[in-house]
């Protein structure tokens, strides 16, 4: 059994980790932290876990965490990097659901996240935890940078086109929409139902912090500098991301659906549609990314959907845990989407 700790067990991604791990046949939840709810039985806050989990939230204590085989950080950006060096030193492996280890250049981190990096020496070692591109490195990693939600949907959507050099990498557009759980569980006026409901808007139009992360990914496949316009939107739903991606084809003779099907043929959690458009409810609660690709003249349009809390966060983190500990990659992630 893998002895698991979760730092940040009261947030949305922490709660989603609890849902997935409570029934995972090879994981034993040993430590679940919350600074504000320390002492409270976990199942009292989350009644869906009654009878599944007999643990209380505890203060984040590095000693207790260092006794785990694996610690997930489901905490705000800039939190994990304070504890990771000590945990790795004690032999504990780490998956960070935040952005602390996603960007390879500490200067780019500081520019977008507004704080100096606490352990820039670990950035070269950290493995970006997108199994579809880093499966082998993930297996032996001590430290995983779990990808952001938008970067997961956008990267998987553009990947086959860029690897195949089928589009102009200097003209890429990602028009992405997220449900409000993407913003976390903290109380904020602009996330109230009366503010978000029956409304729809773009945000961070002049630059979202996922832009450098997506750019870093896409440049690896393109083998050159790319130019991406990325605009996120907030939609009045709870879970889900839909990313509509646009690019200009350099080769219009390609069978695009066949290209995507062949690239993802062996991927357990990427499903390429042969017709129609994927909707977010077809992945809600599941670890799938569902993709469709179409053409208008020399433009290609890709539609990519995920559940931001599952393939966009906790599910992908469990997929990474399975790989790190030599388990079947799909273990504990068999749930299908919830309809309606
Ligand atoms: N929501 C989403 O869809 C996605 C989120 N992410 C990333 O995952 C991380 C967690 O997100 P989410 O679950 O939405 O966030 P929430 O705001 O819902 O939860 C944050 C959690 O972290 C704990 N926490 C806050 N500050 C600290 C601290 N300094 N030390 C220890 N624990 C702390 C909080 O509990 P307490 O204050 O009681 O300790 C809480 O449990 C973020 O970095 C987010 O950007 C990534 C992909 C998708
Ligand atoms: C709807 C919404 O607010 N979404 C969040 C996504 C944040 C997130 O997932 O953060 P990291 O992946 O960087 O950790 C946002 O745009 O800030």
UniProtKB/TrEMBL annotation:
InterPro entries: AGPR (IPR050085), AGPR_AS (IPR023013), AGPR_dimerisation_dom (IPR058924), AGPR_type-1 (IPR000706), NAD(P)-bd_dom_sf (IPR036291), Semialdehyde_DH_NAD-bd (IPR000534). Its EC number is 1.2.1.38. Its main location: cytoplasm. The active site is at 149. Pathway: Amino-acid biosynthesis; L-arginine biosynthesis; N(2)-acetyl-L-ornithine from L-glutamate: step 3/4. It is an enzyme of class 1 (oxidoreductase). It is found in: Cytoplasm. GO terms for molecular function: N-acetyl-gamma-glutamyl-phosphate reductase activity; NAD binding; NADP+ binding. SMART domains: Semialdhyde_dh. One of its GO terms (cellular component) is cytoplasm. The keyword Ion transport does not apply. Residues 3-141 form the Semialdehyde dehydrogenase NAD-binding domain. The keyword Plastid does not apply. Belongs to the NAGSA dehydrogenase family. Type 1 subfamily. Catalyzes the NADPH-dependent reduction of N-acetyl-5-glutamyl phosphate to yield N-acetyl-L-glutamate 5-semialdehyde. This is N-acetyl-gamma-glutamyl-phosphate reductase. The gene is argC.
């Amino acid at each position: 059994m893998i002895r698991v700790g979760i730092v940040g067990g009261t947030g949305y991604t922490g709660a989603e980790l609890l849902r997935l791990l409570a029934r995972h046949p090879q994981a034993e939840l040993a430590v679940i932290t919350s600074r504000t709810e320390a002492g409270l039985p976990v199942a009292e806050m989350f009644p869906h876990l009654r009878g599944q989990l007999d643990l209380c939230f505890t203060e984040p204590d590095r000693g207790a965490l260092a006794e785990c085989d694996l610690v997930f950080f489901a905490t705000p950006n800039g939190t994990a990097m304070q504890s990771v060096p000590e945990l790795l030193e004690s032999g504990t492996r780490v998956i960070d659901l935040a952005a602390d280890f996603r960007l390879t250049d500490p200067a780019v981190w500081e520019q977008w996240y507004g704080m100096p990096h606490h352990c820039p020496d670990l950035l070269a070692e950290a493995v970006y935890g997108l199994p579809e591109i880093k499966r082998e490195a993930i297996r032996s990693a001590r430290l995983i940078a779990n990808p952001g939600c938008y970067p997961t949907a956008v990267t998987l959507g553009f990947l086959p086109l860029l690897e195949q050099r089928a589009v102009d990498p200097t003209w890429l557009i990602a028009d992405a929409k997220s449900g409000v759980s993407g913003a976390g569980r903290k109380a904020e006026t602009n996330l109230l139902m009366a503010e978000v409901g029956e409304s729809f808007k773009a945000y961070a139009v002049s630059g979202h912090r996922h832009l450098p992360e997506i750019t870093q990914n896409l440049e690896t496949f393109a083998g050159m500098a790319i130019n991406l316009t990325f605009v996120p939107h907030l939609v009045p739903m709870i879970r889900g991301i839909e990313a509509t991606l646009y690019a200009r084809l350099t080769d219009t003779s390609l069978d695009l659906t066949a290209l995507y099907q062949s690239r993802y043929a062996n991927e357990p959690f990427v499903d390429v549609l042969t017709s129609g458009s994927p909707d977010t409810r077809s992945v809600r609660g599941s670890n799938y990314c569902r993709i469709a690709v179409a053409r208008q003249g020399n433009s290609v349009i890709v539609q990519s959907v995920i559940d931001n809390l599952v393939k966009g966060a906790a599910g992908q983190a469990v997929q990474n845990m399975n790989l790190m500990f030599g388990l079947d990659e799909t273990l504990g992630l068999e749930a299908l989407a919830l309809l309606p």
